[in-house]
Structure formats: C-alpha cells, structure tokens
Amino acid sequence: MIDLPMLPAILIDMAGSFVIIVLSFLSLRYAFLLTRRQPENFLWGFLFYFCLTLACFSVSRAVGHLLKQILLISGRSEQWHILAPYSGGFNTLLMISLAAVILYYHKGIEGYRAIQKKARSLTHANAQLEVAAEKLQRLNQNLEEMVEERTMELSASEKKFRNFFTNSKDMVYFCDSANTLVNMNAAGLEMLGYSLEDDPKLQLNAIFHNEDDLDQYFETIISVGFVEDLEVEFVRSDGTVLYVLLSATGIFDDDRQFLGCEGIAKDLTRLRTMMEQLASSEKMASVGQMAAGVAHEINTPLGVILGYSQLMMDDFSPESEEGQNLEVIERQAKACRKIVADLLKFSRQSESKRENISINEILDDVLAVTEHSLNMDHIYVHRDFSNDLPTVVGDTEKIRQVFVNFINNAHHAMEEEDGGDLFLSSRYDHSANQVTATVRDTGHGIAEDVLAKIFDPFFTTKSVGKGTGLGLSVSYGIIQEHDGIITVESPVKIDGKDVSGTAFHVKFPAASEESESAIQ
Amino acid sequence: MWVTADCGGQVNRSCGKPEHVAWCAMNLIKKIHRIHPFFLLFLILVFPGNAWAVQSHGAPEGLYVHQLAHVFYTAALCYFFWNIHRSKFKSPGWRLLQVFCVLMVCWNIMAFTDHTLAAVINSAHITGGGDYLATRLRGPATAVNIWYYITKLDHIFSVPALFFLYLGMKGIYKSSVKEEEV
Questions:
Q1: Residue A156 lies in a domain
Q2: Candidates B123, B166, B170, B179, partner chain A, best to mutate (most A CBs within 10 A)
C-alpha cells in the first residue's frame, strides 16, 4: 500500500509553470535580438519562430496548469472541468505547431545550408578574385613603372637623336616616297642657303644638280638599300653648286615597298677647292722647278751668244749686212734673256727684297703709269681703297709687276670690247689678318675650260708674238713667294648675279709688328 | 547518375551535384503539391464508398490527438537534435539546444505516460476529502500508481529543458556578436 501526498506535485507544477514562462520569454528575447542583428539570416529566423511558438505553448500550458491549480484549490472544480478541454486543445494545437515549425524549417535550414555553402564558395571565389586582383594590381603597377621607365628611356633616346639631328654640322634629312624632304636639320638648310624660318618645301630632284646623280642615288637605294660616300652636287637657293659626300639609307615596309629615305650629306666644296688648289700648287711647283732648270741651262749659252754677237758687232759696220744680222741676234738673245729672267721669277729663283709695303701706294703707282693709256682706250678706272690698310712685307717691284700684269691683261680684254671699267679695290680682313687687293675688269672674261690653265707658264690666248704666256705665271710665282693667295673669278658674282668680266683677288698676310719693326 | 531538371528555362542544373540537392528537393515538393489534389480526386472516383458528410467523434479522440501531438512533437525534437548534430554548428549554444531537445523528449515521454496513466488509474485511489491541497494517492503499490505519482512531477524535465534553451539561445547570440565583431 502507498499513501503519497499530491501537494509536492501541485507546488512543483505551479512553480515550474511560472519558471517555464519566464525562461521561454528570455529565450525568445535572445532569438529576437539575433533576428534584429542579422535580419537576413534564415537560421535566426527559424530560432525566432521556434522560440515564439514555444513561448506560446509554454504560456498556454503554464497558464492552464496555474488556472487548474488555482481553481481546484479554490474549490471550483466545475469551472475547471469546463475550461480543461480548451486548455488541452490549445496545448495540443501549439504542440503540433511547434513540431510543424521544426519540421517545416528543416527544409529552410537545408536551403540555408546550401546558400551558406554557396556563400562560402563565393567567399572563396571572392578571395581568389581578390588575390588575382592584387596580383593584377601589382602587375599593373609594375607595368606602369615599366612604361614610365621605358618612356623616360625613349625620351632620353629621342632627345639624344634630336640633339644629334639639330646640332649636326652636316646635312641630315628625311624624305618620303614622293621624294619630298619632310625633315632637314638647320645645318642642311643653311648649306642649301635656306633658313629654318623659310620652311621650304624641297624635293630631292630639286636639290640634285645632275639628274644622273639622282638616278644613281635612287637606283642604288632601291637595289642595295643604301648609298655610301656618293659624291654628288647639290644646288643652293642662289644657284651655286655644292659638292657633297652623301650617305643615305632607304626605308621599306614589310613588302619591300619604298617608303622614303634618310641621309647625311657632308659639304666638300671647301675641301674640294683646297684639293684643287693643292693640286694646282703642286703642278705649278713642278713646272717652276723645271722652268728654273731650263732657265739655268739656257742662261749660260745665251750669255755666250750675246757676248760673242756683241764682240762681232765691233768688227762689222752697223750698216753692213753682217752688222744688221748681228743686231738681230743680239736683240733676240736679250729677249730670250728676259724670258729666262721671267722664268726665274716664276720659279722664285730671283732674289727678293723685304720691305714694308702699302698696297694702296703700289696700286696708285701702277695706275699713275697705266691710267693714261687705259683712258685712251675708253677704259675708266674706279678706285675703292680702304684707309685702314696695314702694310705687308715684300718686294715692291715684284708686287708692282703683279698688278701691272693684271692691269695689262684687263686692258687687253677690254680693248677688244672697245672700252669698259676697271675696278681696283683693297680691304683688310681683321679676322684672317689679310690684306686683299682686287683688280676687276668688265671684259669678255675667261672661258671656263681655260680658267684652270691661266697660271701655267707659256699658256696664252693671245696671238703669236703678242704675249709670252708668262705674265700670270710670274704673278703666281711672286704671290706664292710672298705667302699670298691668288684667286681668279670669271664671270664675277656681284650681289648674287653673274657679271661679265674677270676679277683677280690677291691676299697678302698683313705684316706683324715684330717683322715690321725688324725691317725698319 | 546525373539528372538534369528544368529550372525556369534559364539554367540546366544537375541534381547529382551537392549544391543542387536543396533546389531539387524543393522542386520535388512543388511537384507533389501539384499532383496531390488530383491524386485524391482519383481515389474518390475509383473507390467510391459511403460518403458521410459529417462524422461524429467519440470522447477519447481529444486524448488521442493530444497524445499524437506529443509523439509528433517528440519526433520533431529528435529530428531537430539530429539536424543540429549533422549541421556541425560552431557555436557551443547549439550543444545546449541539443540538451534542450533531449530533456524535452524526456518530458514528452513523461507527459505521454502521465496522460496514459491518468486514463487507466483508479480514481478511487486519489482522495482528498474536499481539500484539494490535501489530496493523496492511496492504494496498492502497483507500477501504475507509482509511475502516475512520478509522472506528475514532469517539471523536473521541462524546467531544465527551458533553462538549457535559454542558455543555448544566449550562447548563440553571444557567438553571433563575437563573430560579427571579428
């Protein structure tokens, strides 16, 4: 037999019911806080609904139990019997709901799990993307640095070549497939007589003097790809000719189509003139040596002929036939001796004095003798002497002879033209420390083919008996002896225009103070 | 075997892939829901019996429904326990929820037993003499009587269960806050 009081169960039931309500709402509070923190989190949503349903169930059940105990304690069991089915019904309903929430949401949890998995996968992919992006950024940064570095290198290189192009003293040019010079440096334009400001639109065929040179230039470039050390002539803007050494390279595309060319040209005009002068000097020197040898060899027998002919003239009357023949022999022997003396002057074998000379005075002296006869032939003299002319050191007589030769030649040239003008000028070039005297006539000038021969001994264009052909040769020898330079210009270029006539320019080195005082 | 299913004509998904299992399950439920009314209609048409519009229920039905609700609730709690177990949640709060499930299942068993015993116990053994608080269980020491007395103390399980639920929710909330701060 058992006899157990139900009071503990009643008390536990009432206290437990109350505690359950409190605990269920505390749980619901945390579930609510979770949903507030992360409303998009499905799991927290599930926990919230679960706790909510549980709280409802707890309230329903606990209130039912409390009500039961209170009603039974207060002796109103009939009322409880009325309410009991409702309480039980609610409890059943909420219990089923609670189970349904759990089971219903399990699908949601599965979905949530799949989403989470996807999210993890996306997070992983995102992390990989971030790594890739970082790598890409690093690469990009490197690329930017590389580009910057290359740009600087390129800029330095461009500057270097630009400087080379701009500062080069030789002509540097680029031309396109239509032979138009698209770029030419300042030195090149200056060489051709243009300035950068002109910005001339030049064609290659316009600056080549000879068409054959141009043909050879293009043929070589097309066939070989380049030309090297091609000596050609260019035409300047004023029409004068330049001698240049040309090297150029063709530019072709992948199909070997000609796109243009780039080249460098070096002005050889001065060098060529110097070479010609050197060659001429060498020729004249060898001719001079030969002339000196011949003169020496002839001088002795000539002296004997002249001596014996003069002795024999004492034996015959001047009116006799023998006497007249001897006079002819003597005259011709003297003429030969003069030629020999000229040859010796040309070959600088004759002795020279050294004194301070004023070129202006010499020119005046020469004109004093020759001007009258010049005027007789309608040749008018024009003087243009510089007042600040320094003296030169040399032999007055020999230099006077030089100018006499020039004036005589001018006289002969203008005589044939029935007169003309003779211009004599002098000037001093401070930079070169040279005194230049110029004798210019307005005669017929000298033909181009004989221009190179005029200083050769015995070369003359005059008829036989009118000249020995030694005048200019002797002048050349004398000027050389005085360390001077003699140049000839025919036709004469004045203000860019060719004027008929011939001009002789003689350049003497100005006397230095030491030599001047030593002579004094 | 790879099975492809149409999903709105946009993307072909393969149910063989793990990430598509949930989607395929949802799709299947939708299909069953669509078929369900037609299936019932089919059964009514094929097996027509006495069609009673209204059916009366006996007195014990309420108890049965309530007991079934306990069974249903127990099953749901078991499933919840297993689901937490397989989900491998990181927060320790979920472990406490599992404890809640175990205690709640125990409470359900106890309540189920109590309801059953209340139906079979001899009411003459419960006497109070008009004073409810003085009610006593008097009778032979049978298993029914003893278990009836024990099962009346069901709050021994339900109160701790709710306490663990509270601790679990608090733990989950704290973990969530901590995770977010990190």
A1: no
A2: B166
